[in-house]
Every structure is written in C-alpha cells, then in structure tokens.
Amino acid sequence: MVKHENFKTCTQAGFCKRNRAFADDVAQLSSWASPYNLDPSSVSFKDGQLSGTILKTVGKAGETVRLPLTVTFLESGTARVTVDEEKRQKGDITLRHDSKARKERYNEASKWAIVGGLEISTGAALSRDTEAGSTRVNYGPAGQHEAVITHSPFGIDFKRDGETHIKFNERGLLNMEHWRAKIEKPAPKEGEEPPPETAEENSEDESTWWEESFGGNTDSKPKGPEAVALDISFPGYEHVYGIPEHASSLSLKETRGGDGKYSEPYRLYNADVFEYELDSPMTLYGAIPLMQAHRKGSTVGVFWLNAAETWIDVLKSKGSKNPLSLGTKSVTDTQTHWISESGILDVFVLLGPTPKDITHKYGELTGFTAMPQQFAIAYHQCRWNYVTDEDVMDVDRKFDKFKIPYDVIWLDIEYTDGKKYFTWDPLTFPNPKKMHNQLDKRDRKLVAIIDPHIKNTDKYPVIDEMKSKGLAVKNKEGNDYEGWCWPGSSYWVDCFNPAAIKWWTTLFKYDSWKGTFANTFIWNDMNEPSVFNGPETTMPKDNLHYGNWEHRDVHNINGLTFHNATFEAMLERKKGEVRRPFVLTRSFYAGSQRLGAMWTGDNLAEWSHLAISIPMVLNQGISGFPFSGADVGGFFGNPSKELLTRWYQTGTFYPFFRGHAHIDTRRREPYVPGAPYTEIISQALRLRYQLLPAWYTAFHEAATTGAPIVRPNFYVHPDDDKGFAIDDQLYVGSTGLLAKPVVTEGAESVDIYLADAQPYYDYFDYTTYVGAGYHTVKAPLDKIPLLMQGGHVIPRRDRPRRSSGLMKWDPFTLVVVLDNTGNAEGTLYVDDGETFDHEQGAFIHRKFVFDWATSSLSSINIGAPGAKTAAYAKTMAKVRIEKVIIVGAPASWKDLSKVGVSEEGVKESKAGKKVELKYYPAQGGKASWAVVRDPKVAVGKGWKIEFA
Amino acid sequence: MGKHQLEAIALLCSLLAVPALAASEAPRPRGVGPEFAKFYKSPDTFTCISNPSLTLPLAALNDDYCDCPDGSDEPGTAACSHISPLSPPSPPTNPNPAARFNETLALPGFYCKNKGHLPLYVPFSSVNDGVCDYELCCDGSDEWAGVGGVKCEDRCAAIGKAWRKQDAERQKSLGAANKRRRELVEAAARLRREVEDRIATLGAQIQGQEVKVASLEAELAGVERSERGRVVKGPGKGGKVAVLASLAKGRIGELVESLGRVRGERERARERVRELEQILATFKEERNPNFNDEGVKRAVKAWEDYAARDKGPDSDPALDRDLDEILKSDAENGLNWEEFESTEESDVEVLYKFEEYLPKPLRDWVDQKLRDLRVTLIENGVLAAPHSDSGDSKAVQDARQQLESAKKDLENDRKELTSHQEDLQKEYGPDNIFRALKDQCIDKDSGEYTYSFCWLGQTTQKSKKGGGHTNMGNFVRIEKVTVDEDLPPDGKGLGSGERYSLVYENGQHCWNGPNRSTRLILACAEKDEIWKIVEQEKCVYRMEVGTPAVCESAAASGKAPAAKDEL
C-alpha cells in the first residue's frame, strides 16, 4: 500500500490550501468581484500580440500590484496568455535568509518544453465591433477564433465560430500571489494573551506564507508566497481528459468530494511513489499539464506551462444552457481550477475542433514522438536483475530454444560496481563484450540503467569530475547538495546546466564507458528526482539549479532535463555512427516524447494494476507522450500464471512492451510458466511481431502528426457520445484494430463496445460483429479479444523470427478488411529502423486502397522523395507482398480463381500476369474471405491487383 | 531438435556406409533431408506429406509461398515457418467445415548437409533471416538467398575439424572418465565390503558380549544378596536424616530465592526481546523495500531469518505454573521440615537397637541370626528392605558398574550393527558409486558467491563479501530427471536425456521464501566439477555438475554419452 503519510494532501501544501480556501470563500459570496483589472489604457496590439497591464488591488486602501499581460495569437490558431509580476521581474524585491535564488518568477519552462509552433499569426487583428470594457481579437483559421478580453474584472472568453468554449477567470479565482516583505510580529510575552489582531491583519491567513515543514523537512521559502492560480471553464463540456500521470480513469473525475468523486485535486509533482494507489488523483512520476475537454462535435484544450508543483480541481455542474428553452437537453459545464506554487502564468489555448487537432497542435508546440528504432517497439525482457553476464546469455539462449521472439534484454542497477554508474561489477559482469556479441548475433540489444544520482565515494572519476566542474545540484546555501539514493550518499547531476549536458555526453563514449557497444541503450530511472531522505522522496524545494532557479520552480521539468542529456549523449557516442537513441524514462514533462519512451513505474502484480494500465496508457497517448507501457507481469509481487498470461496479452497492445520484475520475485520469463501458459504467451508475443509493420506505421504517424499510437474510443469516434468515458479498450493507430484485453481473473468472455455500424471481424477467425453497442466476444485464456474494423488494410509480416531485426527482409502480408460499402484503405511506413536516413527520404510510405467500384487494390506512394530515396528503394527491391487476404470478400468471387496483377516499372507484356485467388465462403457467423496467392509485387512500388 | 539431430546422425551414418547408393540418388529439393527424399520424387506434382488430399504443381515447391497446411512444400524456405502452435491462430482453410487439415509441420526443419561435418536441421524460421547459423548449419546453406547482402561461407571444414578435435578430446576425456568411474566403483565395492566385514565382526562380538553380560548379571545378583543383610549404622543420635533435612532446607531456600531472581531476570529479558522484535517488525513493515539500502536489506533479511526460525513456544504456561508451585512456601507445598528434623526412629532400626544391650558374643550370635532372619523376611516379602541413605555397598557398586559397562558395549555394538545394516539398504546410486564419494565436497566461485556441495551431504553458499556459510539443503534422495539443454563444445553441459539428480532439501529458511533447496543434476565428466549454478526461483537452486560417477551408467541405459554426438 502506498504510504500516504509520505505525500502531501492539498491542505499540507500551503499554496494549494490557500487557493482552495480562496475558492471556497468566493463560492460562498453572493457577489464577488475579482480584484484583477486590466488597465484599458495599457492595452496595445501589435504583430499578433496584445499587451497590457493587469492591476491587482491589494489591501483596503486600494494599492495595486502591476502584472504585465501578453496574449499572443499563433499561426496555428492557438493563443498563448502570459501574466508576470513586474516587481519580481525587475528584481525589486528582497529575499529572506540571504538566499542566492533568482528573484524573477520562473519563465524558462518553455525553453525545455516548446520546440515550435510559435509562429505569430499574421491574420490576427483587433475586432471592429468594439464594446466598452472589453477588447476583442479575431484570429485562427479564417478568423473563426475570437478572444474576448474583459477588462474589469479581468477575464478572457475564447470563442470558435461565435461560441464560447473556454473561459478564463469566470469564477474570479485568478490569483497571483504578489511579493511582500515579511512583517515580523513581536512574539507574545510569556503568560500574556496575544494582542487582538487588527481587522487588516485578519484579512489574510499568513500561516503558510513563510517556512513550511513536512515530514521533518523544512522549506525555507525565501521568496514567500508566490502561487499562481486561475479558474478555467469549459461551458457545455462534460468530459475532460489528460493531465497525466495519475492511476485513474481516462475521463477525469470531480475533485471536491461526493459519491464516486475525489476529494483531493489532481496533483502534478513528479515523485517516486512506492506501491502506488489506484483510482486516485495522487501524483506519480511524470507530469503533462495538458487538459482537453470533449463533447460531441468539439474538442478544445489548455496547456498550462508551469514546472512547479501544480494541483488541479475539477468540478462539473449540470444545468441548462438556456433555462427558458424547455425540452432541450441539459448540458454539463466543466470548471477547473489550476494552482501552481510559483512561476509565471503561461497558458496555451487550443480550440480544436477535433481530438486530432489537439494532439497535432500540441505536438507542434512540444514536439512529436521521436521515431524510434525498430527494436524499441518490439518486446523487451527486463528484470531487477539479470545477475551475471552468463545469466543474460542464458536467458538469451532460452528465448531461442523456446522459439519466443524478443529484441532487448535489460540490466537494472545490480550490473554496476557498487552502484557506480558507468562501471561493471567485475565479479558478476566480467565480460560485457562477450555478452553484447552474443546478443548482436541475433540483432538484439542491451539496455543498461543510468540514474542521475552519482555515488559519493573515493576513486570514482565520475563524482570527482562532477564536483570539480561544479555540475551538481546545489543546496540552499549554494553548496553541492548531498542526499541518499541507491548508492547511499550521492550527488545529483544538474542537467539544467548546458555544461553538465556536455560533460554527461563524454561519459557515454564507447572508449569512456568500456564494455558498451553500438547495441547498448539506456534506461533513465529515479529522475523525478528520487531522493530517499528528501521531502516526499525528492529534493528540497529550496535547492538551487543552474541559473540559481529554485528547485521549486523547475521540479516537474527535472526528469526531462536528465532524459534530454542522456538523449544528447546517445547521439554522440561515436563520430560517424549516428543511430536513433533509445532512452526510457520514468519521470517526464511536456516535451519528453521527443526523447524516448516512458513506463508507468513500479506497479504491482495484481489484476487491478493490469486493468488500470489501459487508461493510463491511453491517457499518455492523447497527452502527447504515446510511447508508453506498464511493466508486464507487475513489478512487485508474483503474478499467478493466469495473470501473467493475460498481462502479456494486454502488453502486446502497449506501445512500449516490456516484461519486468522486482528483485524479490520469482523468475517469470515467458518460457518459465510452462504449458499451456508459455504457448499462449508465445502467441501473444508473436502477434506483436506479426503486427510490427502496423505498429511501426502507427509510430510514424505519431512522429509526424502527434496522433496517439493506441487510441481511446472518443478519439476515434469523436461524435459517439456514448463512448466518451470508455477507457478499457483501444484502437491501434489508424489500422482499425480494436482490442479489449481481458483484465479480470477467470474471464471466459468480454463485452466489447462498437461505436459505429461498420462490420468488425475477429482477427483470428473472422467472426463478424455488426451494430453499435456492446457485443460479447469469447475470451478463454488462449484468446485475445481483437477485432478488425471494416474499411482498413492492415500490413503484417507472418514469418516468426528471433528478433525484429531479422524480419527486415521478410515479405509482407496485407489484410484487406472491407467496410459495409466494400471499400478499404490503409497505410504502411517502412524504413531501415535505425538510422536517420529516413529524414532524407530513405523510407517507403504507401497507401493501399481497395476500391469497390473498380474491384481493385492499389498501392500508392504517399511519401515525398529525398536524397536517399533511390538508394533505399534499391535495398528493398526484393521485399515483396507475399499474400493478400481480403476479409468480407464478396460472394461473387466464389468462382473467381485468378486475379490480374500489374506493377510499376514492369514491362507491359508481363504487366498482365495472373495469380491465383482462393475464396473461402462465409460460414457459422464467420465472414467470407479470399487469399491472393503471392502477387510478387514489391512493397516499395506502385501496383494494382484487379479482382474482376 | 535433439532427437531429430540424433536421427539425422544415425541416417548419415547409414548413408556413409553405402556411399554408392547415396551418390546415385537424384538431387533432393533444397532443405530436404534424406529420410524425406521419398516424398519429393514425383516428376510432375507434389503431394503435401501430412495432407495427401492436397496436390500441387512442382512449381509450387520451394517457391517461397506456403501452400501445404503442413509446410511440406517449402522445405528450403521460411515461407511455412509460421506453422506452429506458438503462432497466432489463423482461420481454417479446409473447404469442409467439419474437418481441419493437419497443420503440424511435416518436416523437422531445413536440412543442412554440412559436408565435412555432421548434417543437421536448422529451424525454418532461421532460414534466410540474414544470420549465418553456423552452430547448426556450418555450410551456410541456410542463407542461400543472401538477403540484405549476407554471405555465409562454408565453414564446415574448419568447424568439422575443430569438432573432431574436440570430439577426440571428449572421447579421450570420456575414456579417462570411465576409467575414473571404474576406480570409483571399485572403491565403492571395497567400502561396501568393509561394511559387510564389519557386520560379520560385530555379529561375533555381540554374541560374546551377550554371554559376558549374562555372567555379570549373575555375579551382581550374588553380591547383592550377600550385601543386603548387612546392617548399616547411623553415625550418631538424631540421625543423618535430620542433618540432611536441615541442610536441604537451607539449600532449597537458596534455590527458591535464586529461582525467583532468575525468573525475574528472564521476564525482563523476554520483555526486551519482545520490544526489539516489535521494533524490527515495524521497521520491516514500514521501510521502503524499493530503496534497497544494502544495510537495511541485510538487517531485514537477518530479521526475517530470525523470525522464521523455529523459536519454540514463547513460554510454556505449564512450566510457569510449575515454577509458581515451586516458589510457594514449603508449608504450602505440604512440606513440613520439622517432621524430618526431629526424626522418629523406624521400626526396623528399633529392632537393631535392642542388640546394644546384649553382651558381645551373644550380640554377635544374635546379630548373625537376626541377619539371616532378616534376609529371609525380606526375601519373602515380609519385611521391607531398610532405608539406607548411604546407597549400595562398594562391592555391589563395582559389580553393577561392570555389568553396566558390558551392557553399554553390547548396546553400542548393536547400534553400529543396525546402522551398517541400514547403510547396506541405502540407495547409493548406480553400482553404489556415491558410496565412494560420500562427504567429499566440491567448490565453485560464481559471481559474488562461493558455492559448494558435498556428496550426499550438504550444499552451501558463502558470500565473498563476508558472512558465514548458508545451508542450501541437506541431501535427501537420488532421482532421475529428463533434461534438454544445448551442449557447449567443451562438453561441459547436461545435454539431452535422462540424468541422475541429487536432491537437497530443508536448508536455511529464506527471507520471504521457502527453505533453501538445491537440485544437483549430474552428467558425465572426467572429474567432479560444478559447471553452473542458477537460482531458478527464489532460494531454489540448481547445480549442473560433471562427475565420472554417472558415465557408464548413461551408456548402460542405452543412451549415447551426453558429450558424444551433439554439437
């Protein structure tokens, strides 16, 4: 069980308590005027950007605090709102305790998170219909978006096509805690009553403004209270999603108490939460402050770019949009309240209108998923720990012996010499080269763990260099911060520092870290950072990072900076040998998707943890970091064989597919459980490998459009309001593959939800399901409930190989799944799976279209050629389509035994070649299907198969 | 694969025996082994081996497209490699919905001729995957298509040569091993003979001892009889009993006092232990195991071991009640010292006292008469034997001592006899061979531990980082197990087939786990050696051990020795 006492509730975090109390106070008032007013005379608009000053009225006498505002309108149709605090900005404040910290509010989160999409809109303009008391700006595609900025009190309504979708400060909860000096009150003398407080002193509760203590750690808070909070409403929206990482449902729950609701806000404060709790808004290892609101016909989103500890309250209120219009359906509004401990206010507003627009535009800002190497999306075998190099080689041999494919074997911390990273234990790993060589024989890889804590010990050049170069995170006094982690006493590398990244890069060179090779890759763990003796198992907030930013300001980005440094290092291991890096991270922030994969941390070998993994992975997908997965089998504890088997059947649908286990558990590699489990697990693994072309294509889509790799129902069917809360089944990319993994013990069937009227076919035997709503699919232990939606072409490679690398030259099979109009289409993306040559056109990108009208299947190029296109095409010239399966084949093909095949670049005389077609009629609820026998067309070329 | 390989080798041997026949064979399609050649002889069509209802044109043979549901049309490609119960299921293709084709691979794999070495089958899934599988296919023929530009040169000459060299070494080593085994068998037989001889010796010895005991018993009876009538006199008035009583009273007083004090100390110690256990239990409960602090982990582990050990009942309430009783005052216990301190003379002693008033000669006469009378009375059960606090006389004691000693010798000899007889019934493996090895121990360094096992004794583990030996199990029985392992070129591995196994159980208890146990699996080797140690699951170990002890037995059971035929 999670140790609640180790982690704060909102009440225990002063700034959250203050802002929640503020919200409660406001809610009780019959009329409330927010004390934030935009000074109309300060408003100016230039080059797509509106600027002005918000005046916050403080105290009874009406003094004001100046808060500079900018609203930037981007070419993408996204608007960005920032509010800062002039006095802190100018450094016109004094810090307590002689702190060396920076005086400004943290304004560099965008430096880490944002990589593009900031082109200023040229079309944005002040609206001609002016109204007193507000400023209006038209922007976005065809000027369809409008921002209505109300001056007094300050607020913004964001409209699309004349309708308001997002409101800032509707409830008046905007709160920038301005800087103030601490007024030391004389302590009451012994035996005397404290003097009665004056009315003014009574107006604000100062108890959490200054030092705060939790779990024996005291935060010195040299800058005093500096929270930033805002209420954001989504009128007419019942569902909001996003803000990972939480072990919770995809559709976010209300957080102010009540039946089936949470009483704590969703929290984002990256932490090493041991044995985490399910169905909880508690914080976990990573944070992406992107929330999207969805309703039939519209999706909008906000991206709260703040790296400090953040809490988000969610409230939903049912009400009629227009109380007078009787008979119309009542609508639900969702109101959210965002509370961060420090930093500037910086919010991006995305107006959709579809889920795809949100992921795409968010991806333009923070980057798309990096295109991984092929092996990275195959199966990973991990354990804490494979204890010797012999052990690794033995596991490797066993996979081959049992004919189970796998690509990567992992080493947890025990491979090191006394937890000193960049070393090998001389007793247990005496021969890393031999180990790497054996793996490389089958094109397999090794992933070794490297954490950010560096052991404080003698004769360890890494710690000596880090300290002497001054690259460690500092404590509040400005000295190297010492904490406790795996190695015992440790220091932490400060990857906010460009010099630290440079130094970190040197450590990964093959000639520096001996015993690593081109097939060594990296796992970054504990980068929240996890500090065993720190508050909430992480660093003190008054620690100092590069640039003298307080840890409090940058905490949620810390994991990303470390991940980034390792990513950079992987690019420079050897000159002239540039391969796509693979780095797994536990902690993450918006933008981490550019650097590698994540997993959901230390879960348990329990059915409930298997079940929660699906909404968690789906949530990662729609929140811009889709390369995700949970530990298959469950990290802590020993899964039953049934649970292990079901977990593999589920894991085959995680974008990141890794089996992992705690050091105190029994061995559980796929070959361990024995009959019938090993056979069933092997089928699940081979299914993943068979579908790797489809997965790789889905990754490519994610890497170019930001679309999730596995998708929830609402994303695929945004107008199906019955399916908006469904989070226990998933679609694989754009393939139409719909899986509902079994996550309960002893199940014999599952009820799978179909959102539309298309036919859905069982993947394995073509049993047909038609009609929106729930259908029962048989699911005994050896069966994965997996359907194919009509209308798609699914690429596969059917030959089982020992690793994905050995499938490189294998022919493809295309499964053409006809829809209810007899049409289908799908795409295939292929490249060399390791280099960056695809950036210069070294890839194959095809679209396959089955056209009912002409009864033909064609392959069409959809890739733009580049310098390396031709050379790559040459290497792939012999890779062919060996088989085309048409599911739902028309009955008229009963007597068709030959189809005509023509191929681009093949002489006319040969162009009309005929190949065999076999037709299998429908029977017993199973669809008719047909097989084209070896059309022998090249996968990289244009071709056409004619069925009539 | 093992079986197929053996079959292949058997077939090869027969082929080599008739080279003329082999040479006259028509060339077989790529990947077909000689034993399947007969299926590929038809000049114009091919019939799927396991599905004879399906006939294909010859052009469909090895055309890299899988037609036969049993894969027999693609002996030379990977096109049918997906046919396997490990693959995702696919829909049935038999036009008759009630029937299903035989969808088991008809062929063992792709046949590598490996000229210059031994022919072997490589799995279809390894054909044309861009990797030269020299372990099985030294001629490189598995990569005939050269996908991705791969070129697998024929290395059979070198590999075959190396193999033959190694094989010769293995044979030599096997010879040495067999020789060593014969020595062991002899030694074991010698040891057994020694035991048998000892049994014979003991038999004779025991007979002698029995006679001796009988005569000593008679002797003792005589001495006792003569001593029984002797009157023992007390040293003075008041009697010894009173003195003893007063001494005992004092002593018991002291003992009661000490017992009370010790008991108090015990209670306090127990309280402290309980408190410490509570602290440790809480410590274990509340620590974060994920932090894996080595010191903490060691402490928790030690605590777990401690907690798991048989502690015995915390405190036996019955024993405590007894103590309570003991600590009560003597009076409460119904013990009245006064009664003993002022002794009343017993009737028998009064009888003797009357002698004191008689003149010496008469007294002697009376004494003699009385003694006889008394003995008669006692012997006839009329008079109780006198209570005497000085015990038996010296003569009786000596006689008894001699008897006891003789009995003890007899008992020891009988015990030894039983143990030797039982030993002869014990399982010592084939030819009693482990008798020759019993209690010899073998060590091996593996990572941070040194492991060791003693034949029919104990298995242990010792960390190089310090700490004592951990018992990984005590020998309980000999079993046979079937193994299927790849054999390394040096022959130091289990190979495939039935192997002897020694089971060691009930070792030290494991933190969060069972009692440690070890299974030794034995394969033929020149000398005793631990090849490999793996912890199969938590605290369940497996040692692969080479020993000459199991060599000939493998040959005797009809199996080729492990090291011989598999590469």
Q: What can you tell me about this protein's structure?
A:
The complex is a heterodimer of chains A (948) and B (567). Chain A is of the alpha+beta class and 948 residues long. Chain A folds into three domains: 4-182 and 216-366, glycosyl hydrolase (family 31) (Immunoglobulin-like, Sandwich), CATH 2.60.40; 383-705, TIM Barrel, CATH 3.20.20.80; 811-946, Golgi alpha-mannosidase II (Immunoglobulin-like, Sandwich). Chain A contains 17 helices and 53 strands. In chain A, strand 51 and strand 52 form a beta hairpin. In chain A, helix 6 packs parallel to helix 7 and helix 12 (641-651) runs parallel beside helix 13. In chain B, the strands form three sheets. An eight-stranded mixed beta sheet of chain B has the order 5-6-7-8-9-10-12-11. A two-stranded antiparallel ribbon of chain B has the order 1-2. Chain B has 13 helices and twelve strands. Chains A and B meet through helix 6, helix 13 and strand 52 of A and strand 11 of B.
Largest sheet of chain A: 10 strands, antiparallel
Write the CATH fold name of the largest domain in chain A. Answer: Immunoglobulin-like
Query: Average pLDDT value of chain B?
Result: 82
CATH arch. level architecture of the largest domain in chain A: Sandwich
User: What's the structural domain tally of chain A?
Assistant: 3
Radius of gyration from the alpha-carbon trace of chain B, in angstroms: 42 Å
**Beta-strand content estimate of chain A:** 25-35%
State the end-to-end distance of chain B. Answer: 12 Å
Structural class call of chain A reads alpha+beta
Keyphrases for this structure?
heterodimer; A: 948 residues; alpha+beta; Immunoglobulin-like; TIM Barrel; 10-stranded antiparallel sheet; 17 helices; B: 567 residues; Cation-dependent Mannose-6-phosphate Receptor, Chain A; 8-stranded mixed sheet; two-stranded antiparallel ribbon; 13 helices; disordered N terminus; disordered C terminus
